[in-house]
Specification:
Layout: H1 2-40, E1 50-60, E2 87-98, E3 101-110, E4 117-124, E5 130-137, E6 144-151, E7 154-160, E8 167-174, E9 178-186, E10 191-198, E11 201-208, E12 216-222, E13 230-231, E14 246-247, E15 252-254, E16 257-264, E17 272-281, E18 286-290, E19 308-316, E20 322-332
Antiparallel strand pairs: 1-20, 2-3, 3-4, 4-5, 6-7, 7-8, 8-9, 10-11, 11-12, 12-13, 14-16, 15-16, 16-17, 17-18, 19-20
Length: 344
């Protein structure tokens, strides 16, 4: 019996330390697991936000007093409304009255190749409610700023094609959906070419000097739309001033006067748009005066315009009021753009 008790005591002496060691090991393992879990609870990085342009419709008593009206749900177009290409944003709107319809031409910038634009259009019965239709012009280079205009019953377009270092003319073969390239009008790298006709002459105003942020404004003229085009003796009409050099929409005729629209792109792109009354223009003379209401367009505080606005095109309605199409930019999360990109 004594031997049995002695053996039992020895067994306890062995088992108790082993149990303590096992318990300690289990506690250490649990603590390590907790520590590991603490390390894994890192904060995920914020999603990338992209500067994205959208298009809206404004109203006013004049093109210089356009406002975002309460009865229009702006923006009327975002990249989400584009159905035939993978769109990054929409911008550079131009409006045309065609029969009983209103047509809106716009740049549709694509996700891939990043930022490269096509020209698309939309339709409306009243200028307020719009239906997106399709891309109507695609090239191997970037397209934007689709100024569409009519001459002698035919429709033409001069889009921005700065990557080609040329100023190009297109003509509709089946308006508004089919277009063909006509010819190069001027061999110069330029942006936002804006055309109008006064008397017997056509005139084009565009911005040049890429290295200076497009801070020069050049003027060209021709007796015929297809040329030959010559640089005006007063050109450049703006030199090294990015606040007023780059066109910001169609050159509009209001109460007998032509008005040049100019973006303010310094210190940031999309600061505002100002208007300049063209007091005199001939093949030899160019004179202009800023309007007293400048700037005539600037970021409004609406969510889609917080970071900039840079274009106006407007039509006078039958009741005398003005309907304008504008664009604005804001930081947004695009589901297919995960990191910053460069576009040249």
């Amino acid at each position: 019996m004594k031997r049995l008790l002695l053996a039992y005591g020895l067994l306890l002496l062995i088992l108790i330390p082993c149990s303590a060691i096992a318990q300690a090991r289990e506690e250490n393992a649990s603590k390590a697991a907790v520590d590991t879990m603490a390390v894994d609870t890192t904060v995920a990085p914020a999603p990338h936000k992209e500067l994205i342009w959208s298009i809206g419709v404004y109203r006013g008593d004049s093109p210089w007093t356009l406002k975002d009206p309460d009865d229009i749900q702006n923006p009327v177009f975002t990249y989400k409304d584009i159905t035939d290409v993978n769109a990054l944003f929409v911008a550079d709107p131009f409006i045309v009255k065609y029969g009983n319809k209103y047509l809106l031409f716009m740049e549709v910038a694509k996700v891939e190749p990043y930022g490269y634009g096509d020209i698309a259009y939309a339709e409306s019965d009243d200028g307020i409610h719009w239906t997106y239709k399709s891309v109507v012009l695609h090239e191997y280079f970037h397209l934007s700023y689709p100024q569409v205009f009519e001459s002698d019953g035919e429709y033409y377009m001069i889009p921005e094609t700065y990557q080609t270092h040329t100023l190009r003319l297109y003509k509709a073969t089946n308006f508004p959906t089919e277009w063909k390239f006509v010819k190069t009008l001027v061999d110069i790298q330029n942006v936002d070419p804006s055309i109008f006709r006064e008397g017997k002459y056509w005139y084009i105003i565009c911005a040049t000097n890429y290295k200076g942020g497009w801070d020069n404004t050049r003027l060209y003229y021709s007796k015929k739309l297809t040329g030959p085009w010559k640089e005006h003796p007063a050109s450049p009409i703006v030199t090294h001033d990015a606040n007023i050099s780059r066109p910001g929409g169609r050159i509009m005729k209001i109460a007998g006067h032509w008005y040049r629209l100019a973006q303010d792109t310094y210190p940031t792109y999309g600061e505002s748009v100002s208007a300049f009354r063209i007091d005199k223009i001939t093949p030899k003379v160019y004179q202009e005066t800023p309007v007293k209401d400048n700037p005539v367009l600037q970021p409004s505080g609406e969510w889609w315009t917080t970071e900039g606005m840079h274009q106006i095109d407007a039509l006078q309605m039958p009741d005398g009021s003005w309907l304008g199409v504008v664009d604005g930019q804001s930081y947004q999360i695009h589901p297919e753009v995960k990191e910053p990109h460069d576009f040249d």
